[in-house]
Structure prediction request, 60 residues.
Amino acid sequence: MMSPRLLLAALIGVAVLVVIGANAHLVYVSTTSQPACVTHVKSGGGTAAPGVYSAANSAC
Prediction:
């Protein structure tokens, strides 16, 4: 049977690897995705409902 100290070290190692893997996946997705233009309220034009934000700078 594994000692409690070795088991704890293994669990911490697995947790660290999961966090590193999740962050690597987020970086991969953010650098490879190309979101399409989304309709939004133009700044200075139209009226938006309270709590609805417009784009800071339109890329379309």
Observations:
- The two ends are 61 Å apart (CA to CA).
- The longest helix spans residues 4-32.
- The mean pLDDT is 79.
- The CA atoms of residues 34 and 45 lie 26 Å apart.
